[in-house]
Amino acid sequence: MEKQQIYDIIIDNLPVGFSIVDKNGIIVDFNNTAEKLTGYSRKEIIGRQHLKMLHGTEDKDRCPLFGHTFQKHEQIVAVEATIMKRDGDFIIASVTASPLFDSNGNFIGGIELFKDITELKRLERERKNILSMFAHDMKSPVITAEGFISRMLSGKTGPLTEVQRNYLELVKEELDGLQGLIADFLEFSRFEATECKPVIGPFNIEAAIRRHIEAARVEADRKNIEIFFESSDEIPLIYADAMLMGRVITNLLDNAIKYTNIGGSVTIRLVNTDKYILVQISDTGIGISEDHLPYIFDAFYRGKRDMKGSGLGLSIAKTIVEAHGGRIWAESVPEKGSTFSFTIPKR
Ligand code: ADP
Q1: Where is each PAC domain found (predicted)?
Q2: Which CATH number do you get for residue 225?
Q3: Of 139, 156, 190, the domain-final residue
Q4: Which residues surround ligand 1 with Cβ inside 6 Å?
């Protein structure tokens, strides 16, 4: 058998859809699996514009291959994209895109490999729905239980012994923690189910930070932690979602206090640069080791299991900052402290 024939057989029998497009996005090859996944025969689709046929759009940004400026030898691996089928239905596909360059380095087209993950996504969605329904249903009993306990503690239901009061206070504290976990989880699952879409308006970030510092003082004073605020020149109004930005600031500030030992300090710095506002929250706390650092923004990741928390705060903060077009990152020296920074672009 000729080498070319062997290649053709291999490509046709790849367990993934395979299509080659030229530099204008016209399909020049399409394998058997791609025919099966999309319902188009090779004859029908070769010579047609792949953006329109497969991605159902003229918008290049919706296509992994043309919505991206590739560096040489770069590949986009396993991004999620919608692929239109011949019958008007669509599949959710995991697409790997590789550009092709000629020997002079000119872009001459590319390859897209795609795998149908529709069923996988459906199951994932279902699992998330069940979890968020579960969390939602847990919310009301916890609130009701806390209400009754507060009533008993207020003395309205008769006198309590010292021991009873102590126990009820402990139960109330635990229920508060549980309520916090449920609230974090519900917020997280809301962002996961629908995209985080900030409601943008003029936002005075300096005033917001000052307010959040005041709110955090109670806990900081309890641990004898000083909070400093430093701000460069005039900080202009930015455009952001006030409620969501509040969540980011509180999450970072609360963490800084939570992960700092008694007597330490927390410093918030606000820097006005050409293109964005930079917020930095530094603490003199326990720090984060190098092996934990890459994962702290992942959902449910928790460094210290013995501390209370959901492991969702930083993941929520990241979703919010990125939905504003900003970036968030952390630097840390174990035993010395951490600095969390985020940017919000000016418009
Ligand atoms: P958690 O509810 O556990 O605080 P987060 O998502 O807010 O969840 O943070 C994830 C992990 O990152 C934490 O469990 C902790 O190990 C680490 N972390 C976050 N902020 C700090 C900080 N300021 N100092 C040290 N570790 C931190």
Answers
A1: 77-129
A2: 3.30.565.10
A3: 190
A4: 251, 255-256, 259, 283, 285-288, 296, 301-304, 309-315, 338
Mean pLDDT, the chain, as a whole number? 90
> Where residue 130 falls among pLDDT bands split at 50, 70, 90?
confident
pLDDT per position as a tens digit, 313-325: 999 999 999 999 9
The pTM of this model reads 0.71
Cβ pair 11, 31 in contact under 8 A:
yes
DSSP structure class, residue 15: S
Look up residue 145 and give its amino acid. A
pLDDT at 343 exceeding the cut of 80: yes
What is the 20 CA–ligand 1 centroid distance (Å)?
Answer: 45
Domain residues for 39? 1-116
Please name the residue whose Cα sits nearest to atom 12 of ligand 1.
296
The Cα–Cα gap between 330 and 282 comes to 10
Residues 205 and 339 in one domain: yes
Whether residues 17 and 112 share a domain: the answer is yes
Helices 242-258 and 205-222 sit at what angle, rounded to 10 degrees?
30
* Residues 143, 79 share a domain: no
Ligand 1 atom with minimal separation from the 311 CA? 8
